[in-house]
Design goal:
Elements (H helix, E strand, L loop, with lengths): L1 H35 L26 H25 L7 H18 L9 H24 L14 H22 L41 H28 L3 H26 L4 H32 L10
Helix pairs in contact: 1-2, 1-4, 1-8, 2-3, 3-4, 4-5, 4-8, 5-6, 5-8, 6-7, 7-8
Length: about 325
């Protein structure tokens, strides 16, 4: 038992370091991508996304790119060591499964990097953004998997409201990532409407086509860009309401109060940063912060889900309905 506990502590420490490193890689990568696109350039917004009108340029190894390469390389080495510690001498589950998924995702992103230098490939940019968020989540899931002894059984189910909230949040993140990958940020510059438009137009649905090769960024009022913005906002509102209700219910229980409070706080921060990003005219640091706090929100939601499912399994009662006991 002492040997297993020692391995779990080491696995937890490595996974915590990986969570911090992958978050840093995510932030630095977002900064390089947005700065390269010309976010906040002098002739705004006409100068935005000029990289789409020409062939990919040779990479310049500035401070941020060097930091990105070093952080990503250390993360990959740590992930390999993490998998080894989870596997040997005997596999520790579920940490081993999560660690293998983390290493697999890192390998896939490394392969995807061969096409990442071309910003016109919107699908590649989208997969890079989602993959970066996935690295943070999987690293944190390894941390959480060391909280309990692996033979305690499978977690119980969480409430329908929480699951719907998680689905809404995931769709919101996907729409936001696609907006970033397709350079649609400047298509909508007002709140809460979108340049006078309140509902997505059928003519804008082709903007969801992931196989497009970009040649220019959607300008203010572009139907496709407006559709993406409005879908992102409405689905985000649904996520805030559903997760908000789930968190308010979870606040009733001492075991889940801290996790629910963290999700509520990060929901407000991410929602507020999203509004400030639009009203500021897409400030570079606000956009980067919006993405960073989104990663933290996803990790916090994963944490809340685990706490609620473990509580339900141990008590035998619905995780978010304490009054039924």
């Amino acid at each position: 038992m002492d040997i297993v506990d020692g391995r779990l502590r080491q696995i937890r420490l490595i996974a915590q370091c990986l969570t911090g490193l992958t978050l840093m890689v995510l932030v630095v990568s977002a900064f390089m991508r947005l700065e390269g696109a010309g976010l906040g350039c002098s002739d705004w917004p006409a100068c935005y996304a000029q990289v789409l009108s020409r062939e990919p340029q040779r990479l310049h190894f500035g401070l941020f790119r060097v930091l990105h390469r070093i952080s990503a390389s250390i993360s990959l080495l740590l992930a390999c060591f993490l998998v080894w510690r989870c596997l040997r001498p005997q596999p520790i589950q579920p940490a081993c499964k999560q660690a293998l998924l983390l290493l697999l995702l890192m390998s896939l992103l490394a392969i995807l990097g061969f096409w990442s230098s071309d910003p016109r490939l919107a699908l590649v940019g989208f997969l890079n953004i989602m993959g970066g968020l996935g690295l943070v989540i999987l690293s944190w899931r390894v941390v959480l998997s060391t909280d309990t002894f692996p033979e305690m059984g499978k977690p119980g189910k969480t409430s329908v409201i929480l699951r719907l909230g998680v689905v809404s949040l995931f769709l919101t993140v996907m729409l936001g990532a696609w907006m970033g990958a397709s350079y649609a940020g400047v298509a909508c510059t007002t709140l809460p409407d979108c340049n006078g438009v309140w509902w997505p137009s059928a003519a804008g649905w082709p903007a969801l086509n992931t196989w497009v090769r970009l040649s220019a960024a959607p300008m203010p009022g572009d139907l496709g860009g407006v559709t993406l913005h409005l879908l992102h906002r409405y689905v985000a509102l649904a996520a805030v309401l559903l997760l908000g209700v789930a968190c308010l219910q979870a606040l009733r229980q001492e075991e889940t109060r801290a996790s629910a409070s963290a999700v509520l706080f990060l929901l407000l921060v991410v929602f507020g940063l999203g509004g400030l990003t639009v009203s500021s005219g897409l400030s570079l640091w606000l956009v980067v912060s919006h993405g960073a706090f989104t990663a933290l929100l996803l990790a916090a939601v994963v944490n809340l889900q685990r706490k609620l499912s473990l509580r339900q399994r141990h008590s035998g009662s619905p995780a978010l309905n304490p009054d039924t006991r």
